[in-house]
């Protein structure tokens, strides 16, 4: 993860605000003073490799959407897609990047989401979001993700499984026990795969599929 991320995160973590650094990161990046390492030209390679079933108007939710690349990919598969981020600047960026989008970009907090989202989405994507959260709140964030999945719906989890070099986060890669913990609130694990991520400091990644 870039030095900008760790610099900002460290200060907010010291102050007891483990999610407060997302907004200043996007704000600094917008002013040319920082880089958002996950602001890349395409949707996640591991999402693009996943065989999404046709959306056909079914509802999808993207957790921690950032600039919106993953959300746009899912919407292109036919899903009526909602995507949220805790950072208002990230949501503004997503809307400006995709002015003709069908995605509903929303400012929201994973730990305090709109009540109407509970069990409301046929597909939920958690991609690299929880891994940016420290252990102090991760135990609450992981089960919160599954509450969005509708009966018969699917949760797709993509996350780092290992890092090299400096072990200080973010990101803090997920253990297998943490991946399994997404199976709360009545969800069932369909598959958990650990795949290689060549050319990346994140040498391997999880891809987990769960259903209700």
Describe the structure.
The chain has 212 residues and is α/β, with parallel strands linked by helices. The chain has one domain (41-211): 3-Layer(aba) Sandwich (Rossmann fold). 28% of the residues lie in helices and 25% in strands. It has helices spanning 3-14, 22-30, 45-48, 69-76, 88-97, 135-146, 176-180, and strands at residues 59-63, 80-85, 104-107, 121-127, 149-162, 188-196, 204-211. The chain has a seven-stranded mixed β-sheet with strand order 3-2-1-4-5-7-6. The termini are far apart. Residues 61-153 form the Methyltransferase domain. InterPro entries: Methyltransf_25, SAM-dependent_MTases_sf. GO terms for molecular function: methyltransferase activity.
SSE map:
Layout: H1 3-14, H2 22-30, H3 45-48, E1 59-63, H4 69-76, E2 80-85, H5 88-97, E3 104-107, E4 121-127, H6 135-146, E5 149-162, H7 176-180, E6 188-196, E7 204-211
Parallel strand pairs: 1-2, 1-4, 2-3, 4-5
Antiparallel strand pairs: 5-7, 6-7
Protein name: Putative methyltransferase
GO biological process, one term: methylation
Keywords: Methyltransferase, S-adenosyl-L-methionine, Transferase
What's the short version?
By secondary structure, the chain is of the alpha/beta class.
Total individual domains? 1
H-E string: HHHEHEHEEHEHEE
Q: Which structural class do you get from the secondary structure elements?
A: alpha/beta
Highest CATH level, the class: Alpha Beta
- The number of E-state strands comes to 7
Give the helix tally.
7
For the biggest sheet, the summary is: 7 strands, mixed
Low-pLDDT segments, ≥5 res:
none
| Name of the CATH architecture | 3-Layer(aba) Sandwich
Taken from the alpha-carbon principal axes, the silhouette is globular
- For the terminal residues, how far apart are their CA atoms? 33 Å
Report strand %.
25-35%
**Mean pLDDT, all residues:** 89
């Amino acid at each position: 993860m870039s030095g900008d991320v760790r610099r900002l995160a460290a200060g907010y973590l010291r102050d007891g605000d483990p999610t407060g650094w997302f907004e200043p990161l996007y704000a600094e990046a917008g002013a040319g003073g920082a880089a958002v390492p996950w602001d890349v030209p395409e949707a996640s390679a591991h999402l693009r490799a996943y065989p999404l079933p046709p959306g056909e108007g079914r509802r999808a939710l993207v957790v921690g959407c950032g600039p919106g690349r993953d959300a746009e990919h899912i919407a292109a598969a036919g899903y009526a897609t909602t995507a949220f981020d805790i950072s208002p600047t990230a949501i503004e960026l997503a809307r400006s990047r995709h002015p003709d989008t069908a995605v509903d970009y929303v400012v929201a907090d994973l730990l305090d989401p709109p009540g109407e989202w509970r069990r409301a989405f046929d597909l939920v994507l958690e991609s690299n979001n929880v891994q940016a959260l420290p252990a102090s709140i991760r135990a609450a964030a992981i089960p919160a993700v599954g509450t969005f999945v509708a009966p018969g719906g699917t949760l797709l989890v993509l996350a780092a499984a290992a890092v090299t070099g400096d072990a200080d986060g973010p990101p803090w890669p997920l253990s297998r026990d943490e991946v399994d913990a997404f199976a709360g609130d009545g969800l069932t694990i369909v598959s958990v795969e650990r795949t290689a991520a060549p050319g990346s400091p994140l040498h391997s990644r999880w891809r987990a599929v769960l259903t209700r």
